[in-house]
Automatic annotation (TrEMBL):
PANTHER family: HYDROLASE, PUTATIVE (AFU_ORTHOLOGUE AFUA_2G14860)-RELATED (PTHR43798:SF33), MONOACYLGLYCEROL LIPASE (PTHR43798). This is AB hydrolase-1 domain-containing protein. It comes from Streptosporangium fragile. InterPro entries: AB_hydrolase_1 (IPR000073), AB_hydrolase_fold (IPR029058), AB_hydrolase_sf (IPR050266). Residues 25-126 form the AB hydrolase-1 domain.
Length: 290
């Protein structure tokens, strides 16, 4: 079965899906905030030899429809994709925002066989206590720099794009309204996600995940991130707060990858290998117990 794109229309909003085909257990891929299903293009080829692989555009992203960002409604969108394509109980792989959704999906669906969360535990812009080992005054200064950068990005999303920039962008990244073109997602969705408690900190939701889960943490700062220490401190805080969770829930495994938050684009081969090895080990163990 070759790759093909479909749009699901028997749902409150249209949902754009790319079915990569493949034989084996179903795997559904969820991109991060501001991304599209194109993010997975270099990850999927190694996966389709062992899995049926499907990717989707989340609401307000890519070619999927616009609607208010409500976490339960987004989980309904994912369910509609799984039902439409007959995936049954797919394993979920999510990056960033997609990883946060994967944890909520597993909590809602105890039949989920496994999830992979690729650096989808805590947003960069967070509470000062989540940056341990830094001088509090420096935390405040660097958080102010980060907020200014994100505020500028949000403002840019609300402005029409110059025609020359539109031509250079992938079609899924742009929407047209009133004759002008804008980046997707829009500023309302960005604001709704940016300040949502689950986006700021998804670690408290992990204990509700009963299926095997792999959490992949980066070891490097994203390119262009302001501040000299903030991201390293954020990673320390995540490790600190993950430790008691994984100790109490040994089915949640944590590994680190020599990449930044943009690991899907930077190290697609390594990401695919981690996914494949984890799923193979998980399903081999499940078959042995059956």
């Amino acid at each position: 079965m070759s790759q093909h794109d479909v749009t699901i229309t028997d749902h409150p909003i249209p949902l754009a899906v790319r079915d990569h085909g493949g034989d084996g257990p179903p795997v559904l891929l969820l991109h991060g905030l501001g991304g599209t299903l194109d993010a997975w293009q270099e990850v999927t080829p190694p996966l389709t030899g062992a899995y049926r692989v499907v990717a989707m555009d989340l609401r307000g992203h890519g070619l999927s429809g616009d609607a208010p960002w409500e976490w339960d409604a987004v989980l309904d969108d994912i369910e509609a994709v799984a039902d439409h394509l007959g995936l049954g109980a797919p394993a979920i792989v999510g990056h960033s925002l997609g990883g946060m959704l994967a944890t909520l999906w597993a909590a809602r669906h105890p039949e989920c066989p496994a999830i992979v969360n690729l650096d989808g535990l805590r947003s960069a812009e967070n509470e000062p206590a989540n940056y341990p080992g830094m001088d509090p005054a420096l935390v405040e200064r660097e958080l102010a720099q980060l907020k200014a950068m994100f505020d500028a990005q949000a403002a840019a999303m609300a402005r029409p794009l110059p025609p020359g920039q539109v031509a250079a962008l992938p079609p899924r990244a742009v929407t047209t309204s009133g004759g002008d073109s804008y980046l997707r997602p829009g500023p309302r969705l960005l604001a709704a996600v940016r300040y949502a408690p689950h986006f700021r900190d998804a670690i408290p939701s992990l204990p509700a995940v009963r299926c095997p889960a792999l959490v992949v943490l980066p070891t490097q700062d994203p390119p262009g991130m302001p501040g000299s220490e903030l991201m390293a401190a954020l990673r320390r805080g995540i490790r600190r707060d993950l430790a008691p969770v994984t100790e109490a829930h040994p089915h949640i495994r944590v590994v680190e990858l020599a990449a930044s938050h943009n690991m899907v684009q930077e190290k697609p081969g390594d990401v695919a290998r981690l996914i494949t090895e984890f799923f193979e080990r998980t399903w081999r163990s499940q078959r042995a117990r059956a």
